[in-house]
Model the fold of this input.
Amino acid sequence: MSMRKNFKLLVLSFLLVFTGMFGFFTTSEAAVADYVSVTKVVNPTTITVEEEAEVSLNIKGTPPSNVIMPNDVILIIDKSGSMQTDNRINAAKNAAKGFIDLMDMTKHQVGIVGYSSEAATSSLPLTTDTAAAKQFIDPIVASGGTETGYAIDQAITLLSSHRPEAQPVIVIMTDGEANSSQAALERAQAAKDAGIVFYTIALLGPNDNPDTSAPNELLKQMATTNSHHHFVLGSTGLAEIYAAIVAEIGVASAYNVVVSDIISEDFEIVPGSYDSNIPQPVQSGNTLTWSFLELKNNDLVFKYKIRPVDKKKYGSLSVSTSASVITYNDYAGASRSKAIPSAKLNVKLLPPSITSVEESTGHPLGGETVTINGANFQPNPTVMMGNKTVVDVQYINENQLVIKTVAGNQGPATVKVINTDGQFATGDYTYLADPVVSSYTPNSGPYVGGTSVFLYGDYFMNGMKVKFGDNYATSSKFYNKGYVVVVAPPATVAGPVDLTLENPDGTSLVVPAGYTYDEPVVEKLSITSISPNSGKLAGGEVVYIEGTLLETTSKVFFGDTEVPINTYYSDKKIRVVAPSSSTPGPIDVTIVNDSGETVIVTGGYSYETPPVLPDPTITSIAPNSGQLLGGEIIYIDGTGFQDGMKVYFGDVEVPVNRLYSSSRFRVIVPSSSVAESVDIKVVNPDGKEAVAIGGYTYLTPPPKAPPTITAITPNSGLATGGTLVYIDGTGIDNGATINFGTNSVAIGSYYSATRIRVTAPSSNGLIGSVDVTIINPDGQEFTVPGGYTYLEVTPTITSITPDNGPLAGGDIIYVNGTNFDSKMTLTVDGIEVPVNLLYSSTRFRFIVPARSTPGSVPIVVTLQSGTSATTSYTYNAPPAAAAPVITAISPAYGPLNGGTIVYLDGTGFTATSKILIGTKEVTLNRFYTDTRLRFIVPAGTVLGATDVKVINPDGQESNVVSYDYR
Done:
């Protein structure tokens, strides 16, 4: 019969096995801390009765860092023909071997299924032998189809023999869609139903879109939860994903999680809104239930949408009921539950809207009739115009209101209709009235403008413009609707002009000949000040010139030198930069406008006579010598140092690193190829210089010293080698060779010339001390005689668990210690016993044999070299059996001719117990358990009560109960 035909039987068998696993899930003692938290968020927080909201249920796991549960893991590796693309098969094999290397085989086991077509699929059973697992992977090659469902069958078969205390896990990696996606989904679901945690990794093409990739979508649905699914584009990042999964193995916040979220009767679940959840929930009415095997160190977010049921109910409503709960087992196996918090969703009725306001303009005094058209008006609404409440409001229907306007300010006013639930709609209304001027002052001013005119009246608006003739005021300040101050603009012609007031809403007022301009005053080009009026011969001084009729195109001369206008502020102020001059003393400043108009200030600017600076001197150089490599900071002291000076080491110019003052600066010494003394020269910007003959000396480098060894830590280790040894000393070069006796090793880690780390080689059977020698690449060496001691390999036993058991034997015993190997022998009470499983050199297990007598016996581990380690194991004497006890008889009566089926409940019954009714021994009809028996009552001789008791094979008798013949 094929594997597929046996699949249902296999899953049933696995379920029976899984039901008995995880002994820590039967304990009543819970973990100290709780590692699961639940929150709920609804978005948006406010909707109308016609809208939907999305509910996000966030389940956060924070597992304990010090609790690692054992896991039995099957790696499923796709080796179909498509894995040849981009050499994906090698990336997959290397990543899988990296996964195995990272696994802690003292706690976990790993098995492998390499699959393509059914005939080409092969597997490796669960093992702790990392070398064997990687050797299984090495010969895998890519060819054939993608029978994903069949591969999962093989993984389930391998996990049917998983350890009872271990969590079964499948990690599947594939680059293609399964030959039968439905079969793959069904088998993945069957595995999850059987208690197997399911990780999936989609190996996509480098240009694939993961959101539309069919293989990615298939694997996402197969995973235990969304966080158990991963994908990579090409093969980049595959090893990192495997490493991340290893980090999760054995670590979980909760197991056997069931999330039951019960939605409030005020809402209904939007069909299909939870389809993207992994895993998908089961919906029953208003209840959504998610079930999954474990919660890792992450957030699981389940999302679904709800919508209101009653379209006329509004307010702040609870999304879910208080009966919503999450149940799970913690890592100690205890059952836990916690309420799922609800969230509030503000449900609003449909908001009102205003489509039009008829008679949308009116006088600021109010009192006019206005019709408001729209939708969703409620009876007894509040209507506002601006910040005032309308008193006279008539509710016609949900689409129309009629109001009397209230008084308001000139300009637009928002009409707001507020329903009784607080929702509102707005429309536009405008108060219109032409401005009114009652007085203004002054009514005349100069031709150039600039006069402040104070206007008094009514219905002025903020932003009102005032025109003097054809020109608008240059500035305006609005105080209130009856008071505005404006500044008259320059005139176009002298004499009276109209004064026009223009409100932003289009209302206006004209005061004929309301303002009179005086005749204009003629100005001439002039210079009133030059500041500063002196500077250095080098020029560069910023000079401000003030005057009248200055133009942007004016030409400015300092003596005969024209300088450009640097900044033009106005016709009364400009800024220029003074040019340089070769001669100190005063010069004329001249400005010429485009019209030819010219103004001259005789001696308007003076050039100062510069001071005479002394020659520089060098008094000290510290330090005055150094290595050929250069790079040393030196300080040069002296006098007359100037900003901008140049410094030379021989013929090499070096920049000034920092000028502290005229008497000190510092530079960085350049490199040199020759050990010699060089001159140091300083040249100031004025050409004056100072020289220190042989001021700096480049030194001949000292010869390199041989290496030394000051410490070897540790200075001993096993003769098999492999000990990490730290060597401290001096002058150690990277690339040095280290000899342990006659065996050479390279440096494993080079920290510095004073510390390295190496791995001690094997002694090739030598026990005792050997010389340790460091040989640098230049041939110089150093030896520590007898510096490292090789020790004989001796096993130790540090613990045995359990250390006692029944005479019948059969218990699995775990032994911890050191230096165990596959060739050692194990004896229990002098009898050789096979090692059941060697996890590593520090842990193995065996099955304890039976023994006829209780007591302590020696357990001895012996290596091939003859060295051994001993501990003890105690065979316990079997406890004395308790006498049987009858607690109930049912029924307790029957007819005299017998034949009644009677059940006895109690404790201490056996399958060979005898039953006496009166003096008659009755055949045991059925033995259920040690707490229940069944027998058939024989015929009696007299009516009335008769004693019933149970006698066990060891002769112990139960208490007596009565059976009544009637």
